[in-house]
Write the structure tokens for this entry.
Amino acid sequence: MKQYVGVDIGGTKISVVKGNERGEVLEKLRFENNLCMRDAVSAIVERVRSLGDAEAIGISCGGPLDPTRGLIQSPPNLLGWDDVPIVSILEEATGIPAALCNDADACALAEWQFGAGRGCRNMVFLTFGTGLGAGLILNGSLYSGASGGAGEIGHVRMERFGPVGYGKSGSLEGFASGGGIAQLARTAALECLQRGERTGFCTCREELDSITAQSVAAAAKAGDPTAKQVYSLCGEMLGRGLSVVIDLLNPERIVLGSIYVRASELLIPSMQAAIREEALARNAAACEILPAELGERLGDVAALSVAINQTERTVTK
């Protein structure tokens, strides 16, 4: 069975894994990304070499990237990673062909090949974690766009004013992401405190900065009305954003990661109501909305999927 190497580069941790064509991880090497860029890249090269030969190397990393030239171009969570030619570095060091993909696209490939998107030809994956990005599988292949920037739905402005996400107030990421939920919750908690009230996720001003999407979800699941309102608004905006995707791309499935996997019951009622109101009924009926299946394995399998996809593209050329 063919074997592949995947490199998942994150702001806090880097994973280097070896796996097979079924997306099964056979070996995994993980280390803290507290190194300067040069040392981190050297550590990646060392670990990739230690895993031996492979058909291809897949690299998954947050953007901005230039996948065509294999460059990591100053992602906000990777200080000092400015125009790093990671593909050529690994190819020259190992003699193995490599490919680079942004993390949303890589996760889309993984869920399409091995997760909730199996068996369909048109699928959209939304990260729905700290931020909100999308990977697009259209007509049975990954669609990246003219400059590798397709799928940046988090940047779409939903309201003129609102929480900031993706550098834009009122953006979909501002309303529907971990950072956005925390912003919405801080505003709601401050309003409660100014009225002399408390919420289940914030009892004093000193706690405002420690509010997270997770703490708000816990309070909402425990019945806190303010927390439930925050998630209801998030779900509504998410539904409005998904309606654009449904009508524009007419996918068979939309797969949502992270927050949706953990808290879908808080989002579904208002999300579905917004879709019923905004999307064409025929298109909405053709689209399943599902949580991601791969869970904690997603990052590793995503990097492997980039390698597998690279090999398949090379074979079909």
